[in-house]
Amino acid sequence: MEKEVSTLAVKKGLAQMLKGGVIMDVVTPEHARIAEDAGAVAVMALERVPADIRAYGGVARMSDPEIILQIMDTVSIPVMAKCRIGHFVEAQILEALGVDYIDESEVLTPADQAHHINKHEFKVPFVCGCRNLGEALRRIGEGAAMIRTKGEAGTGDVVEAVRHARAVMGEIRRLENMPEDELMTYSKEIGAPYNTVKETKELGCLPVVNFAAGGIATPADAAMMMQLGVDGVFVGSGIFKSGDPPRRAVAIVEATTHYNDPEILAKISRGLGEPMVGIGISELPEGEHLAERGW
Amino acid sequence: MKIGVLALQGDFAEHIAILHHMEVDTGEVRLPSQLDELDGLIIPGGESTTIGKLATTFDMIEPLRQFSHNRPIWGTCAGAIFLSCGAKRQQPLLNLMDITIERNAFGRQVNSFEIDLIIPALEDPELPFRALFIRAPLIERVGEDVEVLARLPEDSQRAGRVVAAQQGHLLATSFHPELTDDKRFHRYFLSLVKGLEDHDPSLRLA
Description:
Chain A is an alpha/beta fold. Chain A has helices at residues 8-18, 29-38, 50-56, 65-74, 88-97, 133-141, 159-176, 183-190, 194-203, 219-227, 237-240, 245-257, 262-268, and strands spanning 4-5, 22-26, 42-45, 79-84, 101-105, 126-130, 146-149, 209-212, 233-235. Chain B contains five helices and eleven strands; from the N terminus they run βαββααβαβββββββα. Chain B starts with a strand and ends in a 7-residue tail after the last helix. β1 (4-5) of chain A pairs antiparallel with β6 (113-117) of chain B.
């Protein structure tokens, strides 16, 4: 067989290389350097971290390509960038810039309230958010090569990340025990393509890598998500909105590796300075839940 | 026989799944004490900077060098970088193989690819090995004691460049046999482990 680029195996493959690692939101080349020095497996280039997107309000869009390019020049690890849900031209621009992964993200203001991007059309792989199995499998059906549970970005409250990870894992456990002849109706109920439902049942896990995101702010948060069974973690505002970003970044990386070793976790959790202040999920006004974006 | 997989970061679970499928006993290695009782070690794909930093912090560098004296190690992609003695960038390396590496030699993720390789050292050598190159490194230079196991085919980008090499019982591949169903490279590594044991059982610590 000839050389082939952008096959599903190649797209999924990069996400497999990120497993057991931490992907950090960064807004400047200096942040990117701190993230790489701390041991991040990739950085997510953004104009503002989610906590600031909440604070500023207005429309949140793809970052200025200039910043993304500067970050790509600064680090040797993969660089991801976000586009708005459904905004396929932002995605085309990010692909032209040469980013390694695109996050079609609910953290930005959606550009289409009914449709996500047809991700099969792109050479660059995509990661998408989900709250449950149906949403994850719809995104995979559209071509996503990696999934992250959404959590609630910019809050520093891990409760939604836990809810979404437990939802996906729980539904997969149910699916594994489901008789074959109930799969079509189940696919209809959760709004997911039958073939990916069947594949998930056979594998006993999602057919792509699944990270946790949205509200992870401490080493303990990261380790808990890993113990719940995700493959790695995204940390957004949790690092650069804390009192001592370099130290916290290192501690979260170490906690993601040694997630099952409470003695090491105790050691690395000590003296990290102030965590991000955060917003309790119950204090969020109606309509400000980012996780509800996505269809 | 028990094979460890360095589990600091990366696709260690993929290697373990293949070894399980081959009915080989395995163990995840995150701390030096977990190297005891292993007959060989795989360093998986991942981010070499992350793996190097974690190995340094958790005092794995020296124990891994000790381990290599009498037991085989195989590094895939990031693992190959970690085994090398140079990657043109400040990052922790094991300096075990006399090879230097060019990281991200093909460019960014959109330039990642899969291609057929002919690898004479494997069983059924005429059968091409489908190799996945993910933001892959190239083995830029090999020392005198290093045997080249595979090169990129003539008509490809960076044709003829080295993508798999062996120095004694140390193995390095720029690509990811753990991401395909072809188990020949894993069997080749197990044959090195077995060969070393048969050759001199006293070398076994376990």
